[in-house]
Amino acid sequence: PYTGPSANEIMAKRKEFLSPSLFHFYKNPLNVVDGRMQYLFDENGRRYLDAFGGIATVCCGHCHPDIVESIVNQIKRLQHSTVLYLNHAIADFAEALASKMPGNLKVVFFTNSGTEANELAMMIARLYTGSNDIISLRNAYHGNAAGTMGATAQSIWKFNVIQSGVHHALNPDPYRGVFGSDGEKYAKDVQDIIDFGTTGHVAGFISEAIQGVGGIVELAPGYLPAAYTSIKKAGGLCIADEVQAGFARTGSHFWGFGAQGVVPDIVTMAKGIGNGIPLGAVVTTPEIAEVLTRRSYFNTFGGNPVCTAAGLAVLKVIEKENLQENASVVGSHLKDRLIELKDKYEIIGDVRGRGLMLGVELVTDREQKTPAKAETLHVMDQMKEIGVLVGKGGFYGNVFRITPPLCFTKEDADFLVDAMDYTMSKM
Ligand code: PMP
After folding, report:
1. SUPFAM superfamilies in the record, alphabetically (predicted)?
2. Does residue 308's CB lie within 6 angstroms of at least one atom of ligand 1?
């Protein structure tokens, strides 16, 4: 049993010694002390179904035994920087990751986070093209360092840093966007930005395939092919941010961009890549990667033996346990059940997403799509009391983000929907 400090004691230390900007979702924040696959346990041993931790940390499940074993074996043997000597772990994982990529995407740069991966990708695009302008999407989240904060396009995540050279294009949001599900119409805005806002040459374009922080917004069909065409014509590189949608989560494809039928020039990833271990990566072609030989480039811990051992174990588990297939089967079932719930409750304005990356948007008025922010918090809190953890996001904070570990079962999905149903029935 757990004998550490209580939730209140931890809260007091957080207030005194940690960032005053830290936030938590629940009225009474949860003190999680153990994790096991799709479950978390609090200080009293109470079990919670974790339907959100999948993107934040664990794609394969909390403390997955194979992954823990790989990490422990490696750290007992050696942990070091990656740069000074040879070690097999980084090379083996880079080879395995490259085998999961389409086209000629086979050169991997490792980082420690998604922010770092996107910073590097944007710099590579600028070096390769000799241009500065980058186009990203409104409602995107790409990180919180100066460059990536510029590409992030939600005021709630922006501080007053210099945001140079980034233009934000119309978001191809099928639910709230002006052109509904017509991806090609939204993509015209990318062409307009190039024509009116730049020299006609750009460094690149960066987007998620399904916006995570932005509230599980799957880009309208046909958007990426059309946007990529405009970018390529302007000499730019197309960057796919797979930090949330990658690693089999969408079920239909291993990478989120797969559903749009495009092949990016650069792919960035983090979060699920290491099942909770800090790790990020940028993958590109040998020709583009060459630009980093112009100067010295290095990252002390990017691709260190322990993190890359974890990464390789993750790929093996996804394969061995058929997690992509599971994301597809369980995700479709869960989505169907959530759509049934939408027929029952007026407050559910939209159910969307793909595989085990699903969103449920709450509105007080279906016509006006007025965000039901307080109700979202309430349902989330009540579901926690029943033992189910979901995430929250979207610009208005009124979207449930359902992104569980990929080992989620149909029974888990049913329990989640039943908990949401019960909570809504009491409102
Ligand atoms: N890209 C996307 C799509 C993300 O969701 C995030 C994190 N929420 C990041 C980049 C940044 O990753 P990190 O927090 O690891 O820097």
Report:
1. PLP-dependent transferases
2. no
pLDDT on residue 366:
98
Tell me what pLDDT residue 337 has.
98
Residues β-bridged to residue 168: 136
Burial of 27 (0-12, 13-18, 19+ CB in 10 A): exposed
| pLDDT attached to residue 375 | 98
Which residue matches tokens 């960057």?
239
Q: What is the pLDDT of residue 56?
A: 66
7-60+322-425: CATH topology: Aspartate Aminotransferase, domain 1 (3.90.1150)
Which of 271, 392, 401, 403 for a ligand 1 pocket mutation test, highest count of atoms within 8 Å of Cβ? 271
Domain extents for the chain? Answer: 7-60+322-425, 65-320
What SS3 class is residue 238? strand
- Between the CA of 115 and the centroid of ligand 1 the distance, in Å, is 6
pLDDT tens profile 374-407? 999 999 999 999 999 999 999 999 999 999 999 9
Question: What pLDDT, on the 0 to 100 scale, is given for residue 244?
Answer: 97
Residue nearest to atom 13 of ligand 1 (CA): 114
**Using a 6 Å cutoff on CB, does residue 118 contact ligand 1?**
yes
- In degrees rounded to 5, what are phi and psi of residue 337? -70, -35
Ligand 1 pocket, residue 423 CB under 6 Å: no
Give, using CA atoms, the residue closest to atom 3 of ligand 1. 243
Q: What is the ipTM of this complex?
A: 0.99
We find that the CATH architecture of domain 65-320 is 3-Layer(aba) Sandwich (3.40)
Which H or E run includes 96? helix 88-98
Beta carbon of 222 within 6 Å of any ligand 1 atom: no
**Which residue ranges in the chain fall short of pLDDT 70?**
56
270 CA: nearest ligand 1 atom: 15
